[in-house]
Amino acid sequence: MKIESYDFSVNLMRALLWQYNDAENLQSILQQKEDWYTINQTEFWQDWYDNVFNLLTANQFGLNVWAIILGVPLNVTLAPSDGLDIFCFGIDNDGFEEGSFGTPSTGTVINLSVEMARIALRLRYYQITCRPCAWQTSEFLSSVFSGYGNVYAGDNQTMGPLVYAFFFEPPAAMKFMLGKLDLLPRPATVGVELSYNPADIFCFGIDNDGFEEGSFGA
Can you give the pTM of this predicted structure? Predict the structure, then answer.
């Protein structure tokens, strides 16, 4: 996602002609007006840019706006467990720090954190605006998941699922998000398959075997 840079400043002093350089009262009026614009326009639009427009820095309000535009829910309701016993621990039903093993009979609403929401919205934005070819997608993923580790997209060129290889163990919230929401770029009618912590060697074998068809190593 390319974010253009904008200059929101209003330099009223440049309107002052050289022959008025010694007009202190006129300069004072212009300076006070410029100070007012700095607070009421420059800072306002800068805050709007940072908190709403820029997905890299948007706050919760800005993310909610983007969620409406891109059609991505920032909270997901899990179906109830229909009275089945739930095996979990703690007040918040945390199971081994990975989340609940089941959902209460009334259902559960999972809210994405600000960090996860930014990732989800960036993935969705890329999904609907860019070509889903493997090399270009891999380049984009290196930016989105730069704080976690390497992620690559692999295309076996058989119209089979596009495989996403995560060379790190994603947090539970990220796994949940990627599993529940259709966010990863893919060609039309092509599915997506997720692979976590594959072999360290990332390439195709002697027989050119692809994902899940053989070794990644030479």
Answer: 0.63
